[in-house]
């Protein structure tokens, strides 16, 4: 029995050695196979991945097609726009260049009637465009105010021109009320102290009439404001509406224009510039302005431009006026005190002289 087991031992060892060798061969084969499979996958992935150069060429081709499409779109858009503008121009020439037809149904001769037909239409159209441009840029009439009245009617010697926006009122917007206009403190005082017969008061503003008219009615229930001039009465220059005081039909030696905008008045010497009102309800500028204007009128100044030239040298003319008034009052009080002291001295001297004569 023992001998049988000893005989089997080499056989078992040989089987185990063969199994071990087989396992090692399988491992080597598996490793080689895995490595070969990894290389195959990389080759397959390289074949599937597109070439960057080919992709760039495709994108360039697509971009080129898109650019050509955009060019075609712009081209047809410009063509359509040109056709539209040409049609509008032709309609404008036809409507504006047609001669005026008289009651008898025949064209009324004008300065272009002797020209060729095409030139007639073009010249009439050009004249109509220039007239429209002139109507927009220039005041609506040559004389914005009527001629001064003659006696026995009263014509105030001075003309006061006031801007409405940011001088008398200020626009303000809130969530509760929307847009509204605040009335500046002292409006009633100013209008009352400058009312006729001292000044004829004119509102001359860049606002439209339908906006400014009800505001003026609310500000002036007593009718101190005689005339109202709106945007159509201004002159359009360099993109800005300017108040042309030369069209007021008044002597500029007696015209004072109150505004906060330096570039809004055609005659700088007649422009009394005051600070723009920002809605502060503690502002008292209009009260000072009322005193200043009334002082000028009561002093019967022959040329108000000389006074305005003087106050133009100050940043705040109203503050300068208040200071001058204070100095004038102090000087008046000092003069009055000197006169009173001289009067007392004369009275004392006369009493001494009378007592001396009574003793003698």
From TrEMBL:
The keyword Transit peptide is annotated on this UniProt entry: yes
Function, in words: Essential component of the TIM23 complex, a complex that mediates the translocation of transit peptide-containing proteins across the mitochondrial inner membrane.
Source organism, top-level taxon: Eukaryota
GO cellular component, one term: TIM23 mitochondrial import inner membrane translocase complex
SMART domains in alphabetical order: CPDc
Family statement drawn from the similarity comment of this UniProt entry: Belongs to the TIM50 family.
Transmembrane segments: 76-95
Keywords: Membrane, Mitochondrion, Mitochondrion inner membrane, Protein transport, Transit peptide, Translocation, Transmembrane, Transmembrane helix, Transport
Record-linked Pfam families: NIF
Record note on quaternary structure: Component of the TIM23 complex at least composed of Tim23, Tim17 (Tim17a1, Tim17a2 or Tim17b1) and a Tim50.
GO biological process, one term: protein transport
Broad class of where this protein is predominantly found: mitochondrion
Membrane topology qualifier: Single-pass membrane protein
Location of this chain's protein in the cell: Mitochondrion inner membrane
Record-given protein name: Mitochondrial import inner membrane translocase subunit TIM50
Signal peptide from the UniProt entry: none
């Amino acid at each position: 029995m023992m001998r049988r087991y000893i005989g089997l031992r080499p056989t078992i060892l040989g089987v185990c050695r063969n199994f071990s060798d087989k396992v090692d061969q399988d491992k080597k084969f598996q490793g080689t196979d895995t490595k070969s499979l990894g290389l195959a996958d990389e080759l397959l992935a390289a074949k599937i991945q597109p070439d960057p150069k080919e992709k760039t060429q495709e994108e360039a081709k697509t971009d080129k097609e898109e650019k050509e499409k955009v060019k075609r779109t712009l081209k047809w858009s410009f063509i359509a726009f040109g056709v539209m503008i040409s049609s509008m121009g032709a309609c404008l020439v036809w409507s504006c260049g047609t001669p005026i037809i008289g009651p008898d149904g025949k064209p009324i001769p004008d300065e272009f009637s002797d020209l060729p037909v095409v030139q007639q239409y073009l010249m009439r159209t050009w004249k109509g465009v220039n007239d429209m441009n002139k109507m927009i840029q220039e005041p609506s009439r040559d004389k914005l105010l009527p001629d001064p009245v003659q006696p026995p009617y009263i014509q105030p010697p001075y003309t006061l021109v006031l801007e409405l926006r940011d001088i008398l009122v200020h626009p303000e917007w809130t969530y509760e009320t929307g847009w509204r206009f605040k009335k500046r403190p002292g409006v009633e005082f100013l209008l009352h102290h400058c009312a006729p017969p001292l000044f004829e008061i004119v509102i001359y503003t860049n606002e439209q009439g339908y906006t400014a008219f009800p505001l003026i009615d609310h500000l002036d229930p007593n009718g101190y404001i005689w005339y109202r001039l709106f945007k159509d009465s201004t002159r359009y220059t360099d993109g800005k509406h300017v108040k042309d005081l030369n069209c007021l039909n008044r002597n500029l030696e007696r015209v004072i224009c109150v505004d906060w905008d330096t570039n809004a008045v055609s005659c700088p010497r007649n422009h009394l510039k005051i600070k723009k009102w920002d809605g502060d309800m503690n502002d008292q500028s209009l009260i000072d302005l009322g005193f200043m204007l009334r002082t000028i009128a009561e002093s019967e100044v022959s040329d108000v431009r000389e006074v305005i030239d003087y106050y133009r040298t100050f940043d705040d003319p109203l503050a300068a006026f208040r200071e001058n008034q204070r100095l004038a009052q102090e000087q008046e009080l000092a003069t009055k005190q000197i006169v009173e002291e001289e009067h007392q001295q004369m009275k004392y001297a006369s009493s001494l002289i009378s007592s001396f004569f009574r003793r003698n």
